[in-house]
Amino acid sequence: MAERSDRTPSRWRRPLLRWLDGVEAGWAVPLLIACFVAVWTLYLVIAYAGGGLHPDTLEAWTLGRNFAWGYHKHPPLMGWIAASWTSVFPLNDWSLQAMAMVNAGLALFFVDLVTRQFVTGHKRVLVLLLLMLTPAYQFHAQRFNANSVLLATWPLATWCFLRAFETRSVLWAIAVGCTTALAMVGKYYSVFLVASFAFAALAHPARRAYFTSASPWISVVTGLAVLSPHMSWLATTGASTFTYALAHANGNTFSSLGEVKNFLLGLVAAISVAALIWVLIAGRRLKQFPADFVAMSLGLRLLFYVAIGTIALPVLTSLAMGTDLPSLWALQGLFLFVVLVVCGTSYSIERFYTVNAAVVVAGVALVAVLIVAPIHAVYRNSHGYEEGRNFYVQAAGELTRQWRELTGEPLGAVSGDDSLAFATAFYSPDHPDYARPFEHQYNWGLPRRTTLDRGWAALCFDGQDSCGRWMEFVSSRAGNYVRREFTVQASLWGRQGLTRNVVVLMVPPRANGGTSPESAADDFSASKRSPQ
Known about the structure:
The chain is of the alpha/beta class.
């Protein structure tokens, strides 16, 4: 049936077949990715209407407000991207939602660069369509953070590594060093990608030719040079990002076995829909898999070793060190397995199946936008989110209004509950600084006198015990302060939703206090005293 359909296609299939004809002409893949980004950005705009941005996205923007070679909780790439984006595009929800999906679109584009090393024509599109049926490029991507930035950096670095290994040219060797360094400043989990490159090169039959050339050593030197500003920052600030990362290494053998099991099951679940579609496409030809694996080209075998490394190395590390290992840390590597499966087939795939896959992807997207997104928005308006993002805009606006009413000045600094503080910095028209340095993010210390002299506010949700006790602790030492409580209500398209109480603490600026908000984020006590 597939062959007959390709010879005499139905009328509705002909536009899609003409689209597939444009793959090698250079316009079909960009069109697919652009439509994907546009549709899923629209989904986010509708599904999270009235809901505010995720705290991780707000944190990325907060980090990026002050350029640095590193930040005390995360490597700097997510902050750099958010700052660059908002220097061009508006500071609102849809803009940062578009940023998240553009990142996903770039990821798919870089995956296509890898795919075209091995196949041409509609198989390139099939790889992308299968990846679009995983949750990585929509739901994982929308939560823009240190994990999601790896969606783009991993395939880009992989493409450069494949080219460098094949050509051993100086330019590609430099590109590997630059892109692996970029992945590392995205998240240190990328060390497993770098180690997988080394493992793949050692396992490959052409290892002698590669390691006796200058290529790998140029890559190493380039990577270290690009990373040197960040490493210098680590050396001069106490390497707190490593401390934060090592906080995930507190398990034992038994807990690690559970982490590994959940890690592998999570990845299987993430790729299960795409795997089912592939089974339907391959059909009886699946029995050729062992022969195809044995006959795999040397380029695909190199990619296979990289893929194995990105799974085996985190698993071995977790078992050895007792680290946490959530599957979402590895979602950016799923493309390796999809490329291997599709490109490793010795038989041709009829365009009939690629058209069908495109219809499935389009159908899922339309159902998501037209049905799921409005239902999600209405549901969350009345049931809320755990982090309280329904109330971000209202809380930020009301705090700003009360602060101006109290002081007659713009709000310059804010802290308290992190999600509310990030949201106030973003949604308040004053865009106050987040006034708790990230090295003290979880210490609940006391603001320094200079911070209080300049004027400062904090806010917590009613019922947050640790935040409430901290407010009592600060109130007893702040001197002149105003503590208030107000109620905010979620709203969606004019329909009122659930309510929640917010407690705010406002310390007006002293008459002779400083007025430099830029230094507010540096004036915070390192005290770890627990407010009781």
